[in-house]
User: Fold this.
Amino acid sequence: MRKVYCILFCFLFIVGAAAQNVAVINGKAISNKEFMWFYKKNHSGNANVSFDDLSSYLNLYVNFKLKVLDAKKMGLDKDTAYIAEVENYEYALHTQKRISKTNAEFVFIMNEYRDAVLMFNLSEMKIWNKAQNDESLLRSFYEKNKDAYLQRPFEEVSGQVIVDYQRKLERDWVESLKKTYTVKIYQDELRKLAKL
Assistant:
């Protein structure tokens, strides 16, 4: 009987813990609290939050977290320049003395900064530099999509070609990340967060 209670307790604990998360990416949970902190930070003045708005933002947030996971897999979080940049930012936060290290907001701010720098660095390598520094790839993309540019010469539309090629690279990257890492979204938790 004791074994049954133990199993039941473990099951309820796992279900309860999952009920506090909007998503899990490769085994790492995104809590309701973390997600809503980021949502509110980027959507100020939004008193009524719809499920569709939250769902769209969660999709973007998951894509962001997948890119960060990819950056960590590549070891970018071990780079000395990255570590120094994060330490300098943390020091700057401490000198403001508005937020203590034990404050939950401090943890969110530091995690956001760490992740954003990693995502930026990897995006620069995988998307921006590739799209701006390899004219042969750009011209090839242009040739495949010439109709979208109304047959105008490459030189006239090169700026738009770069933007479109960057979007394609990002779409392909995110698609490959979603095939590589497991993502579980808890729609019911997201619905609880929506204020209709």
Remarks:
- The radius of gyration is 21 Å.
- Helices lie at 2-18, 32-42, 51-73, 80-96, 104-133, 135-144, 154-180, 187-193.
- The mean pLDDT is 86.
